User: Fold this.
Amino acid sequence: MPLPTARSTPERSLAELDSVGLISQLALATARIQELEGRLDEAKQQDSLTGLPNRNRLLDRAEQAIALASRRSHLVALLFVEVDRFKSISQTLDFQEADELWLQFSRRLASPLRLGDTLARLSTDQYAVLLPEVRDSMEPCRVAQGLLDSLNIPFRLGPRELTLTASIGVSLCPQDGDDAISLLKQAEAATGRSRAEGGNTYHCSTPTLNEASLERRELEACLGDAIMKNELELLFQPQCSVDGTIVGLEALVRWQHPVLGPVPPSKFIPLAEENQLIHPIGEWVLRNACRKMVSWQALSPRPLRLAVNVSPLQIAQPHWVDTVANTLHEFRISPRCLEIEITEGTLLRNAKLSNTALHVIKAMGIRIAIDDFGTGYSSLNYLQRLPIDTLKIDLSFVSGLHPEHPDISSVPIVQTILDLGHNLHMEVVAEGVETSMQRDTLSRMGCRLFQGYYMGAPMTVQEIEERLEAQQIRAFNTLLSTGLSDQAV
Assistant:
């Protein structure tokens, strides 16, 4: 019997090829469908005009932030932003102008935000901002004010200019809720209170935070007049040798508000920096401190040094160096008697700034001190690049001096700072000296200058004069007794 022929093989091969082609086309179609579904899901998660996240994506990110915050023990903030006078504005615009306006508005709101924050568009005139990691409870208030400030410049649509403002509400997790929906509702309710006040402001949902924000705005309104109304005061804290002799004074500004009472610098200095009031306040401090030093120099057997704290914004101001030079000339104070104090953080954040203004200051003969030394987290190469004269050991290290407990003591760190300063031919001042044990321990380690409540609390002008006079009398009596002893011999 003959063997079967393979006549049907070509037909099977064609069928198999057709199947392979169909499977390939089906795979491509499936991939295309998945891509389109992904795009559709993406479209469902963002605003069609601006490309910003919409309500759904905002709530999803807020839930993720809340879950992470509960594990890392930080706060989450949600800001609800609503455009003021939306209907009256929209009635004056055609479709193209409206689209352009909201694109500009969205870019303005995004400008003050940090990387990691989320700006979402909930509807035509409603936005929201998610701050996923908040360490300071007042930070959302600063962001809210930054959003309002970003709208100050009029919007331009061709030849037209429009001024837009917004009402903002702020909520915090966990104070105002522990889920995204609750936070959004609380922030929206707070926005209603801002709108009821006429807009262009913000309110907080949390009562205590709202009180703090109201106080902040009250301080902002009054700070500009504090100099004119003579509400600022200078105190001076002594810098002493180990025997208590005053060799220098640090000028400290205080604000006595007529209603709120004493306002700590930790509250009003950041406000002054945000509102550019740090320049007139800084100049007031420098001039008044130098004016007092003129008479005090005559009460000291050796030239006193005046230390003045300076903000990085002051250093960045083009005419700051001229202001310092003119002040010294006006009061006829030697540049060697003035020491400019800047924090280590200022140096680390403003490297270019430090390389210019500080060298000019140093060339004038003025000394430069680094405050809070040891708290920075950057390379120490700036100590070689910059003309630094004095290191001030941060008080956190001084308070941690426990020679009897070497395993928890900051003695090795303090010794390292002292050795570093001396090897670089710098003076070292220990801040926050509050006990005789700390003074004696630091003295044995090689420290020669001390500042803190044990050496003297911040004092008024009169108290400084009394102490300098007493110091002058002691020095005279010591000199007199030494002379008498020499004659007896």
Notes: The first strand starts at residue 75 and ends at 83. The chain has a mean pLDDT of 86. The longest helix spans residues 9-44.
